[in-house]
From TrEMBL:
UniProt entry keywords in alphabetical sequence: Endoplasmic reticulum, Heme, Iron, Membrane, Metal-binding, Microsome, Monooxygenase, Oxidoreductase
Gene Ontology CC: one annotated term: cytoplasm
CDD domains in the cross-refs: CYP2
A GO molecular-function annotation: oxidoreductase activity, acting on paired donors, with incorporation or reduction of molecular oxygen, reduced flavin or flavoprotein as one donor, and incorporation of one atom of oxygen
Domain of life: Eukaryota
Organism: Erpetoichthys calabaricus
Name of this protein: Cytochrome P450 2B19-like
Length: 493
């Protein structure tokens, strides 16, 4: 009888505790933005298109508005749709929305280190240091421009070898782009036929496709799946380990040859800072942050820009008349002798408009990388608690009907005024916005312009088939829009 009484008492206590926590949770999440009613455990997943989640959010927003709460599994997520809502959060209330959500797959791969997927002092210190170091080594300055011009010449030489032979441009472009970030972080470029570089680029290309797989997003919603069904995650993790091993070897070489008064690159600068702060037990300048930062910069600095170039060439062979207009502008402004320079941008409005429209139309990261709130915040009359996951849907900005005349049509006139001069649109947000805007935006913009223009100065590109049949829809779109695999013909000009 005494045992029975103890069990009853324990049940009452547990019930009261559960009620207390449920009530506290209800209060914490009271007056959240509206959204579809979630089911137990799975939330609103049955209403989601796993391959195109951004389209599901757009559909929901027609019912619940531009600020809504969607449950991914048991986690309430605030989703922002349209330019006005995204701009208001990321720019006008930048501090409150500047957190990075904990994305399980990336957290496990990066082990909580580095600049991209961290918060607080770690993120602030590493971002400040990284931006300063990039400026020291020429990001946005003449020296980087010269590196890109030199690399563009190497790229032209490689592409010329394929004249008369249809080829997939994937690794030609990724090798060229990768060499620019390699100059900044490793202090060197690699030959195009370097086996190590080709292997690493293959790993990156594979991981982008795996991470953009809907199944990987299920890991982020139900992290326990990593233990139960680890197949895809193990592939991502093993590829990342090989990249980190390469970076680790590069760091060790730098340690052995470091000269504190003459830093050669990002790694040297970081190692010097590590020595300076070796007596600080709370320093963020340690080996783990260095390893992950360099690996992340190598990955992000290679894949995003090379994917943009690859998608851009696909668009150019689909619309040969637009490609020809770029050729005409290049011949008029630059000619075919001297290399293009960043200074040429201001005299090439159509080319600038084409490049911007390519970036808008391909919608590289449709969902953005998920943010989180850094504190309790009131947003448009709704209460959003601290550490709430926030998804500012970039697709909804780049295709916002109130800011683009023909959002679902490729149209370079989106960036041209009535006098055919280049004009910027505030809804052009491919690099995100606010405090989490891509740290490499300046470098990426310079690379995209110089590589595109140099290629089109020397070549014209055509499709193997009828250009009208080219499919511009992405191969994968769960996280990154990855273009279909294709081949093209190259013709010397």
């Amino acid at each position: 009888m005494e045992l029975f009484g103890t069990v009853i008492l324990a049940a009452i206590v547990l019930g009261l505790l559960f009620f207390s926590f449920s009530k506290r949770d209800t209060i914490r999440y009271s007056n959240m933005p509206p959204g579809p009613t979630p089911l137990p455990i799975i939330g609103n997943l049955l209403q989601m298109n796993g391959g195109r989640p951004h389209l599901s959010f757009l559909k929901m927003s027609k019912t619940y508005g531009p600020v809504m709460t969607v449950h991914l599994g048991q986690q309430p997520v605030v989703v922002l749709v349209g330019f006005e809502a995204v701009h208001e959060a990321l720019v006008k209330q930048a501090d409150a929305f500047s957190g990075r959500a904990e994305i399980p797959v990336f957290m496990k791969v990066n082990e909580g280190y580095g600049i991209i997927f961290t918060n607080g002092e770690r993120w602030k210190q590493l971002r400040r240091f990284s931006l300063s170091t990039f400026r020291d080594f020429g990001m946005g300055k003449r020296s980087i421009e010269e590196w890109i011009q030199e690399e563009a010449r190497h790229l032209v030489k490689e592409v010329r070898k394929n004249k008369g032979h249809p080829f997939d441009p994937t690794f030609f472009l990724s090798r060229a782009v990768s060499n620019i970030i390699c100059c900044i972080i490793f202090g060197q470029r690699f030959e195009y036929h370097d086996d190590n570089l080709l292997h690493l680029l293959s790993l990156l290309n594979t991981n982008v496709r795996l991470i953009s797989n809907p199944f990987t997003q299920l890991y982020n919603i139900f992290p326990s799946l990593i233990k139960i069904m680890p197949g895809v995650y193990n592939k991502i993790s093993n590829n990342a380990k090989q990249l980190k091993q390469f970076v680790s070897e590069q760091i060790e070489k730098h340690r052995e040859t470091l000269m504190a008064d003459s830093p050669r690159d990002y790694i040297d600068n970081f190692l010097i800072r590590m020595k300076q702060e070796s007596g600080n037990p709370f320093t963020e300048f340690n080996g783990n942050n260095l390893l992950i930062n360099v690996a992340n910069f190598f990955s992000a600095g290679t894949e995003t820009t090379s994917t943009t170039l690859r998608y851009g060439l696909l668009i150019l062979i689909k619309y040969p008349n637009l490609q020809e207009k770029i050729h005409q502008e290049i011949d008029s402004v630059i000619g075919r002798e001297r290399p293009p320079s960043v200074e040429d941008r201001k005299n090439m409005p159509f080319t600038e408009a084409m490049i911007h429209e390519i970036q808008r139309f391909i919608d590289l990261v449709p969902l953005n990388l998920a943010h989180s709130t850094t504190r309790d915040v009131i947003f448009r009359g709704y209460n959003i608690p601290a550490k709430t996951v926030v998804i500012p849907v970039l697709h909804s900005v780049l295709f916002d009907k109130t800011h683009w005349e023909t959002p679902y049509t490729f149209n370079p006139r989106h960036f041209l005024d009535e006098n055919d001069q280049f004009k910027i649109n505030p809804a052009f947000m491919p690099f995100s916005a606010g405090k989490r805007i891509c740290a490499g935006e300046g470098l990426a913009r310079m690379e995209i312009f110089l590589f595109f223009v140099t290629l089109l100065q020397n070549f014209s590109f055509s499709s193997l088939d009828d250009s009208e049949k080219i499919n511009l829809s992405p191969y994968a779109s769960s996280l990154v829009n990855v273009p279909q695999v294709y081949k093209l013909n190259v013709h010397a000009r």
